[in-house]
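Sequence in, structure out. Go.
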Amino acid sequence: MERWFLVTATAISVLLGAPPDAWAQDVVKIGLVHSMTGGLAPVGKQVMAGVRLYMQQHGDVVAGKKIEIILKDDTTVADMGKRLAQELIVNEKVHILGVGITPTAMAIAPLATEAKMPEVVMVSGTSAVTERSPYIVRTSFTLGQQSAVIAEWVVKNGSKKTVIVQSDWAPGAEATAVFTEAYTRAGGKILDTIKVPLANPDFAPFLQRAKDANPDTLFVFVPAQAGTFAKQFVERGLDKSGIRLIGPGDITDDNDLPGMSDAMIGVVTAGLYSASHNSPMNKVYVEAIKKANNGLRANFISVGGYDGMHLIYEALKKTGGRTDGDGLIAAMKGMAWESPRGPISIDPETRDIIQNIYIRKVENIGGELYNTEIATVEAVKDPTKAAKK
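Output:
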Protein backbone atom coordinates (compact mmCIF):
# COMPACT_ATOMS: atom_id res chain seq x y z
CA MET A 1 0.00 0.00 0.00
CA GLU A 2 2.79 2.41 0.95
CA ARG A 3 4.56 1.63 -2.30
CA TRP A 4 1.36 2.34 -4.28
CA PHE A 5 0.97 5.74 -2.59
CA LEU A 6 4.65 6.55 -3.31
CA VAL A 7 4.32 5.73 -7.02
CA THR A 8 1.09 7.73 -7.32
CA ALA A 9 2.53 10.76 -5.54
CA THR A 10 5.61 10.67 -7.76
CA ALA A 11 3.50 10.56 -10.91
CA ILE A 12 1.39 13.49 -9.75
CA SER A 13 4.45 15.57 -8.89
CA VAL A 14 5.94 14.89 -12.33
CA LEU A 15 2.73 16.01 -14.03
CA LEU A 16 2.46 19.12 -11.88
CA GLY A 17 5.95 20.13 -12.93
CA ALA A 18 5.35 19.40 -16.60
CA PRO A 19 4.95 22.18 -19.16
CA PRO A 20 1.40 23.26 -20.07
CA ASP A 21 1.48 21.31 -23.35
CA ALA A 22 1.70 18.06 -21.39
CA TRP A 23 -1.81 18.64 -20.04
CA ALA A 24 -3.22 19.48 -23.47
CA GLN A 25 -1.19 17.13 -25.61
CA ASP A 26 -4.36 15.61 -27.10
CA VAL A 27 -5.76 19.00 -28.15
CA VAL A 28 -4.63 21.23 -31.02
CA LYS A 29 -5.85 24.78 -30.60
CA ILE A 30 -6.37 26.91 -33.70
CA GLY A 31 -6.78 30.63 -33.06
CA LEU A 32 -8.75 32.40 -35.78
CA VAL A 33 -8.65 36.20 -36.08
CA HIS A 34 -11.25 37.43 -38.56
CA SER A 35 -13.48 40.44 -39.22
CA MET A 36 -16.87 39.39 -37.84
CA THR A 37 -18.04 42.99 -37.32
CA GLY A 38 -17.11 46.30 -38.92
CA GLY A 39 -16.88 47.18 -42.59
CA LEU A 40 -15.61 43.77 -43.70
CA ALA A 41 -17.98 41.62 -41.63
CA PRO A 42 -19.31 39.85 -44.78
CA VAL A 43 -15.73 38.64 -45.37
CA GLY A 44 -15.57 37.10 -41.89
CA LYS A 45 -18.94 35.44 -42.41
CA GLN A 46 -17.81 33.79 -45.63
CA VAL A 47 -14.42 32.58 -44.39
CA MET A 48 -15.98 31.08 -41.26
CA ALA A 49 -18.61 29.34 -43.38
CA GLY A 50 -15.76 27.58 -45.17
CA VAL A 51 -13.93 26.75 -41.93
CA ARG A 52 -17.01 25.29 -40.27
CA LEU A 53 -18.05 23.29 -43.31
CA TYR A 54 -14.62 21.67 -43.56
CA MET A 55 -14.79 20.60 -39.92
CA GLN A 56 -18.36 19.39 -40.37
CA GLN A 57 -17.29 17.20 -43.29
CA HIS A 58 -13.98 15.96 -41.83
CA GLY A 59 -14.59 15.87 -38.09
CA ASP A 60 -12.67 17.48 -35.24
CA VAL A 61 -10.04 14.82 -34.61
CA VAL A 62 -6.81 14.71 -36.65
CA ALA A 63 -3.84 12.41 -36.04
CA GLY A 64 -5.41 11.46 -32.72
CA LYS A 65 -5.67 15.11 -31.64
CA LYS A 66 -8.87 16.98 -30.85
CA ILE A 67 -9.17 20.21 -32.89
CA GLU A 68 -10.37 23.22 -30.91
CA ILE A 69 -11.26 26.46 -32.69
CA ILE A 70 -11.02 29.78 -30.83
CA LEU A 71 -12.50 32.62 -32.90
CA LYS A 72 -11.67 36.28 -32.21
CA ASP A 73 -13.22 39.30 -33.96
CA ASP A 74 -10.71 41.95 -35.05
CA THR A 75 -13.64 44.32 -35.82
CA THR A 76 -11.85 45.12 -39.11
CA VAL A 77 -9.12 46.92 -37.12
CA ALA A 78 -5.47 45.76 -37.40
CA ASP A 79 -4.41 46.86 -33.89
CA MET A 80 -7.30 44.92 -32.41
CA GLY A 81 -6.28 41.86 -34.42
CA LYS A 82 -2.71 42.07 -33.16
CA ARG A 83 -3.83 42.34 -29.53
CA LEU A 84 -6.19 39.41 -29.89
CA ALA A 85 -3.50 37.27 -31.55
CA GLN A 86 -1.16 38.01 -28.65
CA GLU A 87 -3.84 36.89 -26.22
CA LEU A 88 -4.36 33.72 -28.22
CA ILE A 89 -0.64 32.92 -28.15
CA VAL A 90 0.08 33.86 -24.55
CA ASN A 91 -3.16 33.11 -22.70
CA GLU A 92 -4.96 30.53 -24.82
CA LYS A 93 -1.76 28.68 -25.80
CA VAL A 94 -2.89 28.15 -29.39
CA HIS A 95 -0.69 26.12 -31.72
CA ILE A 96 -1.74 27.61 -35.09
CA LEU A 97 -3.16 30.96 -36.21
CA GLY A 98 -5.65 31.45 -39.04
CA VAL A 99 -6.03 35.08 -40.11
CA GLY A 100 -8.01 37.22 -42.51
CA ILE A 101 -7.62 40.71 -43.92
CA THR A 102 -4.31 42.24 -45.01
CA PRO A 103 -3.78 44.79 -42.20
CA THR A 104 -4.42 42.19 -39.51
CA ALA A 105 -2.28 39.55 -41.23
CA MET A 106 0.65 41.97 -41.42
CA ALA A 107 0.21 43.18 -37.84
CA ILE A 108 0.28 39.60 -36.54
CA ALA A 109 3.31 38.51 -38.61
CA PRO A 110 5.98 39.54 -36.04
CA LEU A 111 4.12 37.63 -33.33
CA ALA A 112 4.05 34.49 -35.48
CA THR A 113 7.79 34.82 -36.09
CA GLU A 114 8.59 35.31 -32.42
CA ALA A 115 6.39 32.40 -31.35
CA LYS A 116 7.55 30.24 -34.31
CA MET A 117 3.88 29.58 -35.00
CA PRO A 118 2.22 28.91 -38.39
CA GLU A 119 0.02 31.80 -39.55
CA VAL A 120 -2.35 30.55 -42.24
CA VAL A 121 -3.63 33.51 -44.29
CA MET A 122 -7.16 32.68 -45.45
CA VAL A 123 -8.29 36.05 -46.88
CA SER A 124 -5.54 38.58 -47.67
CA GLY A 125 -4.52 38.96 -51.31
CA THR A 126 -1.58 41.33 -50.83
CA SER A 127 1.61 39.79 -52.25
CA ALA A 128 3.97 41.08 -49.55
CA VAL A 129 2.10 39.37 -46.68
CA THR A 130 3.98 36.08 -46.97
CA GLU A 131 7.29 37.96 -46.91
CA ARG A 132 6.55 39.38 -43.45
CA SER A 133 7.25 36.08 -41.69
CA PRO A 134 8.73 32.68 -42.59
CA TYR A 135 5.79 31.16 -40.70
CA ILE A 136 3.09 32.55 -43.01
CA VAL A 137 1.37 30.30 -45.57
CA ARG A 138 -1.44 31.54 -47.83
CA THR A 139 -4.57 29.65 -48.97
CA SER A 140 -6.46 32.62 -50.41
CA PHE A 141 -5.00 34.33 -53.51
CA THR A 142 -2.87 37.25 -54.58
CA LEU A 143 -4.28 40.25 -56.38
CA GLY A 144 -1.52 39.93 -58.94
CA GLN A 145 -2.68 36.49 -60.00
CA GLN A 146 -6.02 37.89 -61.14
CA SER A 147 -4.89 41.34 -62.32
CA ALA A 148 -2.17 40.01 -64.63
CA VAL A 149 -4.45 37.42 -66.20
CA ILE A 150 -7.31 39.85 -66.94
CA ALA A 151 -4.87 42.44 -68.35
CA GLU A 152 -3.44 40.01 -70.88
CA TRP A 153 -6.85 38.61 -71.77
CA VAL A 154 -8.55 41.96 -72.40
CA VAL A 155 -5.78 43.22 -74.70
CA LYS A 156 -6.00 40.01 -76.73
CA ASN A 157 -9.72 40.67 -77.00
CA GLY A 158 -9.51 44.18 -78.40
CA SER A 159 -8.94 46.58 -75.51
CA LYS A 160 -6.63 49.51 -76.30
CA LYS A 161 -7.43 52.26 -73.76
CA THR A 162 -8.21 51.71 -70.07
CA VAL A 163 -9.07 53.83 -67.05
CA ILE A 164 -8.33 52.29 -63.64
CA VAL A 165 -10.51 52.90 -60.57
CA GLN A 166 -8.91 51.59 -57.38
CA SER A 167 -9.48 51.83 -53.65
CA ASP A 168 -6.80 54.05 -52.14
CA TRP A 169 -4.93 51.56 -49.96
CA ALA A 170 -2.08 49.09 -50.34
CA PRO A 171 -4.03 46.22 -51.99
CA GLY A 172 -5.52 48.68 -54.49
CA ALA A 173 -2.08 49.99 -55.37
CA GLU A 174 -0.84 46.44 -55.86
CA ALA A 175 -3.71 45.43 -58.14
CA THR A 176 -3.17 48.60 -60.18
CA ALA A 177 0.59 48.12 -60.48
CA VAL A 178 0.32 44.53 -61.70
CA PHE A 179 -2.50 45.34 -64.12
CA THR A 180 -0.70 48.38 -65.51
CA GLU A 181 2.54 46.48 -66.13
CA ALA A 182 0.82 43.54 -67.82
CA TYR A 183 -1.60 45.70 -69.83
CA THR A 184 1.03 48.07 -71.21
CA ARG A 185 3.43 45.22 -71.91
CA ALA A 186 0.69 43.59 -73.99
CA GLY A 187 0.20 46.82 -75.99
CA GLY A 188 -2.59 48.70 -74.16
CA LYS A 189 -2.56 52.28 -72.85
CA ILE A 190 -3.61 53.49 -69.38
CA LEU A 191 -5.47 56.80 -69.72
CA ASP A 192 -5.98 57.56 -66.03
CA THR A 193 -5.71 55.96 -62.59
CA ILE A 194 -8.42 57.17 -60.22
CA LYS A 195 -8.00 56.56 -56.50
CA VAL A 196 -11.17 56.21 -54.45
CA PRO A 197 -11.32 56.59 -50.64
CA LEU A 198 -11.77 53.19 -49.06
CA ALA A 199 -14.84 54.28 -47.06
CA ASN A 200 -16.52 56.32 -49.81
CA PRO A 201 -19.81 54.77 -50.94
CA ASP A 202 -20.53 57.35 -53.70
CA PHE A 203 -18.72 56.55 -56.92
CA ALA A 204 -20.66 58.97 -59.13
CA PRO A 205 -17.95 61.66 -59.54
CA PHE A 206 -15.27 59.05 -60.17
CA LEU A 207 -17.41 57.30 -62.76
CA GLN A 208 -18.00 60.61 -64.54
CA ARG A 209 -14.27 61.31 -64.59
CA ALA A 210 -13.65 57.85 -66.01
CA LYS A 211 -16.31 58.33 -68.70
CA ASP A 212 -14.88 61.72 -69.70
CA ALA A 213 -11.52 60.08 -70.46
CA ASN A 214 -13.26 58.11 -73.23
CA PRO A 215 -11.73 54.66 -72.56
CA ASP A 216 -12.89 51.42 -74.11
CA THR A 217 -12.29 49.55 -70.81
CA LEU A 218 -12.68 50.26 -67.09
CA PHE A 219 -10.52 48.18 -64.72
CA VAL A 220 -11.95 48.29 -61.19
CA PHE A 221 -10.66 47.18 -57.79
CA VAL A 222 -12.94 48.28 -54.94
CA PRO A 223 -13.11 45.41 -52.40
CA ALA A 224 -16.22 45.17 -50.21
CA GLN A 225 -17.85 47.92 -52.33
CA ALA A 226 -18.02 46.13 -55.66
CA GLY A 227 -21.81 45.71 -55.49
CA THR A 228 -22.32 49.44 -54.93
CA PHE A 229 -19.88 50.32 -57.70
CA ALA A 230 -21.55 48.01 -60.21
CA LYS A 231 -24.97 49.41 -59.36
CA GLN A 232 -23.81 53.01 -59.90
CA PHE A 233 -21.99 51.99 -63.10
CA VAL A 234 -25.37 50.92 -64.46
CA GLU A 235 -27.31 53.85 -62.98
CA ARG A 236 -25.03 56.35 -64.74
CA GLY A 237 -25.48 54.56 -68.04
CA LEU A 238 -21.89 53.41 -68.47
CA ASP A 239 -23.15 49.93 -69.27
CA LYS A 240 -24.71 51.41 -72.43
CA SER A 241 -21.73 53.61 -73.33
CA GLY A 242 -19.68 50.82 -74.85
CA ILE A 243 -17.16 50.86 -71.99
CA ARG A 244 -16.20 47.35 -70.96
CA LEU A 245 -16.15 46.73 -67.18
CA ILE A 246 -13.44 44.31 -66.03
CA GLY A 247 -11.47 43.55 -62.89
CA PRO A 248 -10.47 40.95 -60.35
CA GLY A 249 -13.20 38.51 -59.42
CA ASP A 250 -14.65 40.51 -56.55
CA ILE A 251 -16.47 43.07 -58.76
CA THR A 252 -18.89 40.26 -59.61
CA ASP A 253 -18.56 38.45 -56.30
CA ASP A 254 -20.81 35.39 -56.09
CA ASN A 255 -22.13 36.75 -52.81
CA ASP A 256 -23.21 40.03 -54.48
CA LEU A 257 -24.45 38.80 -57.85
CA PRO A 258 -27.95 37.74 -56.70
CA GLY A 259 -28.64 41.39 -55.77
CA MET A 260 -27.33 42.85 -59.04
CA SER A 261 -29.40 43.64 -62.13
CA ASP A 262 -29.27 41.94 -65.52
CA ALA A 263 -27.24 44.94 -66.70
CA MET A 264 -24.23 43.04 -65.31
CA ILE A 265 -24.69 40.26 -67.87
CA GLY A 266 -21.58 40.06 -70.02
CA VAL A 267 -19.18 41.61 -67.49
CA VAL A 268 -15.87 39.74 -67.64
CA THR A 269 -13.54 39.19 -64.66
CA ALA A 270 -10.56 37.06 -63.73
CA GLY A 271 -11.16 35.06 -60.58
CA LEU A 272 -9.96 32.06 -58.65
CA TYR A 273 -13.41 30.61 -57.99
CA SER A 274 -17.00 30.63 -59.14
CA ALA A 275 -20.03 29.09 -57.46
CA SER A 276 -20.82 27.65 -60.89
CA HIS A 277 -17.40 25.96 -61.23
CA ASN A 278 -18.24 22.67 -62.90
CA SER A 279 -16.86 19.92 -60.69
CA PRO A 280 -18.59 17.30 -58.52
CA MET A 281 -16.70 18.54 -55.47
CA ASN A 282 -17.82 22.13 -55.97
CA LYS A 283 -21.45 21.20 -56.50
CA VAL A 284 -21.46 19.44 -53.12
CA TYR A 285 -19.60 22.38 -51.58
CA VAL A 286 -22.02 25.04 -52.84
CA GLU A 287 -25.08 23.14 -51.63
CA ALA A 288 -23.50 22.43 -48.25
CA ILE A 289 -22.57 26.10 -47.70
CA LYS A 290 -26.09 27.16 -48.66
CA LYS A 291 -27.75 24.61 -46.37
CA ALA A 292 -25.57 25.41 -43.35
CA ASN A 293 -25.75 29.22 -43.69
CA ASN A 294 -29.37 30.13 -44.46
CA GLY A 295 -29.00 30.23 -48.23
CA LEU A 296 -25.57 31.89 -48.38
CA ARG A 297 -23.91 31.49 -51.76
CA ALA A 298 -20.30 30.28 -51.54
CA ASN A 299 -17.68 32.71 -52.85
CA PHE A 300 -13.91 33.06 -53.27
CA ILE A 301 -13.49 34.04 -49.61
CA SER A 302 -15.20 30.94 -48.28
CA VAL A 303 -12.84 28.59 -50.15
CA GLY A 304 -9.88 30.36 -48.52
CA GLY A 305 -11.19 29.25 -45.12
CA TYR A 306 -12.11 25.78 -46.34
CA ASP A 307 -8.70 25.18 -47.89
CA GLY A 308 -6.96 26.76 -44.91
CA MET A 309 -8.43 24.07 -42.69
CA HIS A 310 -7.48 21.38 -45.20
CA LEU A 311 -3.88 22.60 -45.15
CA ILE A 312 -3.81 22.50 -41.35
CA TYR A 313 -5.40 19.05 -41.13
CA GLU A 314 -3.07 17.51 -43.70
CA ALA A 315 0.02 19.10 -42.13
CA LEU A 316 -0.95 17.64 -38.75
CA LYS A 317 -1.33 14.22 -40.38
CA LYS A 318 2.17 14.55 -41.85
CA THR A 319 3.69 15.50 -38.48
CA GLY A 320 1.77 12.81 -36.60
CA GLY A 321 -0.01 15.50 -34.61
CA ARG A 322 3.14 17.35 -33.56
CA THR A 323 2.59 21.10 -33.45
CA ASP A 324 6.08 22.63 -33.58
CA GLY A 325 6.00 25.50 -36.06
CA ASP A 326 8.99 24.50 -38.15
CA GLY A 327 7.67 20.99 -38.59
CA LEU A 328 4.21 22.18 -39.63
CA ILE A 329 5.57 24.74 -42.09
CA ALA A 330 7.82 22.11 -43.65
CA ALA A 331 4.79 19.83 -44.02
CA MET A 332 2.77 22.59 -45.68
CA LYS A 333 5.37 23.56 -48.28
CA GLY A 334 4.69 21.90 -51.61
CA MET A 335 1.38 20.38 -50.50
CA ALA A 336 -1.09 19.88 -53.38
CA TRP A 337 -4.77 18.95 -53.38
CA GLU A 338 -8.12 19.27 -55.14
CA SER A 339 -10.25 22.15 -53.88
CA PRO A 340 -13.80 23.22 -54.75
CA ARG A 341 -12.04 25.88 -56.88
CA GLY A 342 -9.91 23.30 -58.74
CA PRO A 343 -6.33 22.01 -58.29
CA ILE A 344 -4.16 24.07 -55.91
CA SER A 345 -0.78 23.78 -54.24
CA ILE A 346 1.56 25.67 -51.92
CA ASP A 347 4.68 27.09 -53.55
CA PRO A 348 7.56 25.64 -51.50
CA GLU A 349 9.70 28.73 -52.15
CA THR A 350 7.24 31.54 -51.39
CA ARG A 351 4.57 29.73 -49.31
CA ASP A 352 1.98 31.30 -51.62
CA ILE A 353 -0.89 29.47 -53.24
CA ILE A 354 -0.56 28.29 -56.84
CA GLN A 355 -3.94 27.96 -58.54
CA ASN A 356 -5.97 28.22 -61.73
CA ILE A 357 -7.29 31.65 -62.63
CA TYR A 358 -10.53 31.61 -64.61
CA ILE A 359 -11.85 34.15 -67.08
CA ARG A 360 -15.53 34.40 -66.17
CA LYS A 361 -18.52 36.08 -67.86
CA VAL A 362 -21.71 36.98 -65.98
CA GLU A 363 -24.69 35.02 -67.31
CA ASN A 364 -28.28 34.46 -66.25
CA ILE A 365 -28.68 30.80 -65.40
CA GLY A 366 -32.11 29.64 -64.27
CA GLY A 367 -33.13 33.16 -63.31
CA GLU A 368 -29.97 33.88 -61.27
CA LEU A 369 -26.71 35.61 -62.17
CA TYR A 370 -23.55 33.49 -62.11
CA ASN A 371 -19.93 33.81 -63.22
CA THR A 372 -19.56 31.30 -66.04
CA GLU A 373 -15.98 30.19 -66.65
CA ILE A 374 -15.04 30.71 -70.30
CA ALA A 375 -11.25 30.22 -70.16
CA THR A 376 -8.66 28.84 -67.75
CA VAL A 377 -5.07 29.85 -67.07
CA GLU A 378 -3.56 26.95 -65.16
CA ALA A 379 -1.22 26.90 -62.16
CA VAL A 380 -0.74 30.65 -61.79
CA LYS A 381 1.94 31.79 -59.33
CA ASP A 382 2.12 35.22 -57.72
CA PRO A 383 3.55 37.41 -60.53
CA THR A 384 4.87 40.07 -58.13
CA LYS A 385 7.27 37.62 -56.50
CA ALA A 386 8.11 36.00 -59.82
CA ALA A 387 9.18 39.41 -61.17
CA LYS A 388 11.66 39.83 -58.32
CA LYS A 389 13.64 36.74 -59.33
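Check: The CA atoms of residues 98 and 276 lie 27 Å apart. Confidence is low (pLDDT under 50) at residues 1-24.
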